[in-house]
Amino acid sequence: MHPKVMVVEDEEALSELLKYNLESEGYEVEIVDRGDDAELRLRETVPDLLLLDWMLPGVSGIELCRRLRQRSETEGLPIIMLTARSEEAERVRGLATGADDFVVKPFSVPELMARIKAMLRRSNPSKVSSYIKIGELELDKETHRAHRNGREVRFGPTEYKLLEFLMTAPGRVFSREQLLDAVWGHNNYVDERTVDVHIGRLRRSITRGKEKDPIRTVRGSGYSLNDKF
Ligand code: CA
User: Fold this and answer.
1) Å from CA of 13 to ligand 1 middle
2) How many CB atoms lie within 10 A of CB 220?
């Protein structure tokens, strides 16, 4: 399950930038450009986090925040407010209205991403930790499903475990023995060549057509998942 983030922002260039960055980190993003539209939309669906601009047409961010805190469905919704520098003095009022955090424009995108992640980790720990993305591969530890370029990858439970393990440390080389321990357990009677067989199956299931094989064989050492592909 991808965490859902709603972005309420009327500056299109900014909302597009946020959408792009959030999606590349695995979030599902919905953009709304008016405060009143956001209020209606939030009656239909509640995201995992709300990025809310202060100055908006329709209903202002601050007023929307106040109203959301009065409804039981959204009283606990994590809200990060985006404000312009000139409005920074209004911070206190915003926090009193119930925003969880404030980010002043112009802000650094990586910093905002880090704050979003930290806030989601506090409010919904399982959602943030269950999702890994490396290169074109996405893996959800909760549902044991994986996707490459949006296509679902089908494989057996052993291949899943191998991939999950390799994805926890991209770029690192694991010996066959380490992979055996991690995937089959310490008390296994499995031959090291079994690892090669399952790596072969994993490669075939995650690589289609002209896609690059993300698993690197390191002669004499073992295997590694490339961190960029
Ligand atoms: Ca605005």
Assistant:
1) 11
2) 6
Check residue 105 and give its pLDDT.
86
In angstroms, the CA 64 to CA 54 distance is 9
DSSP string, 96-137: HHT-SEEEEES--HHHHHHHHHHHHHHH-HHHHHTEEEETTE
Compute the average pLDDT of residues 134-147.
90
pLDDT at 162: 95
> Is the fold of 4-127 the same as that of 131-225?
no
User: What are the boundaries of each domain within the chain?
Assistant: 4-127, 131-225
- What architecture (CATH level 2) is domain 131-225? Orthogonal Bundle (1.10)
Q: 4-127, which class in CATH? A: alpha beta
3-state secondary structure of 93: helix
Distance 95 CA to ligand 1 centre (A): 18
The verdict on pTM exceeding 0.70 is no
Coil, strand or helix at 145? strand
Per-residue pLDDT of 170-207, as tens digits, reads 899 999 999 998 898 877 778 889 999 999 999 999 99
Output the CA 174–ligand 1 centroid distance in Å. 49
Give the chain's end-to-end CA distance (angstroms, integer).
23
For residue 52, report the distance from its CA to the centre of ligand 1, in Å: 9
Tell me how far apart the alpha carbons of residues 146 and 4 are, in angstroms, rounded to a whole number.
18
Pairwise CA distance, residues 88 & 54, whole Å: 10
Q: Which pair of tokens denotes residue 127? A: 């959602």
